[in-house]
């Protein structure tokens, strides 16, 4: 079983780093304009995203179109 890569409000950060919002459906046509970015430490709790269809993902794992 692999490591979880997307997180929701209330989840705890598994590692320190910069996390950004990504769309739930990662399609070329659903790019997010001005996604929120946050810096987290291990164990910090993820805040709410800009809308309910987004999740948090570590920047180096986030797909860039």
Which segments are poorly predicted (pLDDT under 50) over 5 or more consecutive residues? none
Give the biggest beta sheet: 4 strands, antiparallel
SSE class: mainly beta
H/E order of the elements?
A: EEEE
Instruction: Tell the overall outline.
Output: globular
Number of helices: 0
What strand line-up does the widest sheet have? 1-4-2-3
The total beta strand count reads 4
Query: Alpha-carbon distance between the termini?
Result: 27 Å
Strand fraction equals 25-35%
- The chain-level mean pLDDT equals 84
Radius of gyration from the alpha-carbon trace, in angstroms:
11 Å
Instruction: Estimate percent helicity.
Output: under 10%
Characterize the structure shown.
With 65 residues, the protein is mainly β. It has a domain of 40 residues. Strands 1-4-2-3 form a four-stranded antiparallel β-sheet, with no helix packed on it. It is globular, with a radius of gyration of 11 Å.
Features:
four-stranded antiparallel beta sheet; 0% helix; YjzC-like protein; 65 residues; single chain; mainly beta; YjzC
Brief digest:
The chain has 65 residues and is mostly beta strands. The chain has strands at residues 6-7, 17-23, 37-40, 54-58. The mean pLDDT is 84.
Secondary-structure blueprint:
Blueprint (H helix, E strand, L loop, with lengths): L5 E2 L9 E7 L13 E4 L13 E5 L7
Antiparallel strand pairs: 1-4, 2-3, 2-4
């Amino acid at each position: 079983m692999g490591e979880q890569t997307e997180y929701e409000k209330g989840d705890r950060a598994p590692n320190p780093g910069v996390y950004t919002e990504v769309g739930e459906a990662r399609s070329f046509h659903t790019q997010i304009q001005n996604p929120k970015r946050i810096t987290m430490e291990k164990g910090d709790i993820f805040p709410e995203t800009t809308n309910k269809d987004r999740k948090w993902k570590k920047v180096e794992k986030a797909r860039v179109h």
